[in-house]
Design goal:
By secondary structure, this protein is mostly helical. The protein has 3 helices and no strands. It starts with a helix and ends in a 24-residue tail after the last helix.
């Protein structure tokens, strides 16, 4: 159930793999004790929230410049 929700949420992100890696690192970091409590956990949480807020643009593709028409050729005799 939770896996389906996370998968559906990540499908709309611009960088779903990077979001998953940072979220996994955050969960792993919560389990490992460190010298300065909660300093790195807070930074990783901010990074995860930042990546989670980057949504795909509508249309799915990055807009590019309009195609340039080919140069007109003079008529051949």
């Amino acid at each position: 159930m939770i896996r389906g929700l996370v998968t559906r949420f990540a499908a709309g992100l611009r960088f779903p793999t990077l979001f998953g890696l940072v979220a996994g690192l955050f969960l792993l970091d919560l389990a490992i004790p460190d010298l300065i409590p909660f300093a790195d956990e807070i930074l990783l949480a901010f990074g995860t929230v930042l990546l989670g807020s980057l949504r795909r643009r509508r249309g799915g593709a990055v807009p590019t410049a309009a195609p340039v028409p080919p140069a007109s050729r003079p008529p051949t005799p």
